[in-house]
Write a structure and sequence with these properties.
The structure is a single chain. By secondary structure, the protein is mainly beta. The chain has strands spanning 43-50, 53-59, 65-69, 75-79, 84-89, 96-102, 118-127, 131-139, 147-153, 161-166, 176-180, 186-192, 197-203, 210-217, 223-231, 234-241, 251-255, 263-264, 269-270, 282-288, 294-300, 310-319, 322-326. It is built from no helices and 23 strands. Strands 19-23-22-21-20 form a five-stranded mixed β-sheet, with no helix packed on it. A four-stranded antiparallel β-sheet has the order 1-2-5-6, with no helix packed on it. Strand 13 and strand 14 (210-217) form a beta hairpin. The protein is globular and about 55 Å long.
Length: 333
Amino acid sequence: MTAHLVAPRTPDSPLPTGMSRSTPAHLNGELWRDIHGRPIQAHGGGLLRFDEHWYWYGEDKSGRSSLAVTGSGQTVERVDLVGVAVYRSADLKSWERLGIALSPRHDDLGGDLHVSQFMERPKVVYHPSGTFVMWVHIDRPDYQLAATGVAIADRPEGPFTYLGSVRPGGLDSRDQTVFLDEDGAAYHVCSTDRNATTLVTRLTNDYRGLTGESAKVFVDRHMEAQAIARVNGRYWFLASGCTGWHPNEARSAVAESIWGPWHELGNPCRAGSRAELTWGMQSAFMQRLDGDRVLVMFDRWRPRDLKRSGYGWFTASPRGERFEIDWRPEWTA
């Protein structure tokens, strides 16, 4: 999430009375809990499928809350880095916390992973060599570093070893995702030009670096929270506008090539309260499931209490020339 003037998204609700802790309900927009009844801390996250299990990586927002002042003078809520948390599930519903996959460094003042920095929107891909590769937005409290960091591990739960950060092609990189295509090529996708443009860059063959093959798309469209899925031979794109914690109307698009040209399709959200504001949520990731079904992941941010921010998960499929997401009150896998 790129920093902007704080305006809260719709807050989550308490855990329903009488809910089983071993098989928790996942009400869309609410705080979710793991199999032990603890709040799931995996915000701005992404999924990985490996050895019959799903792994969910995301920001642990349970750290100490404070205020940060951006380079433009705006004040935003933040928490000290706790790290990238990882959860495991066999059914995409009952989640077990495995711990912190990428930890902060308390003794490296000014370093990328110091507790005072930002580490957002982690995404992990698996390389056939046996390496798990994580890409994550790295930034300072003033949001002027605007870089992407990479870490590797030999197990999906980590621990991940941090390799450093880079600006793609020397350009700023804020909200980001990683997309793994059917042919094994992987791509880094981020907001650049101070969020005005989306930048697509092919990763190196080992997924640990960025190649010189890149393209700017959605120029001057001011998007963040990008997510991509490939279904029926076409690339489907989801993002939000750049209003920080404040909800806005989701964007969607389709293309025959990841390099474009992209054809915008408008808001994909259908029915439900405040669909015109993405149900008070923001996109996080899209994961291809079976057939033409796609799991679409959202966050419902609660800036004044970030550790209690909620989640919303939905399945969607392309409908002709459109990609539409129907409201459901609960994620049922």
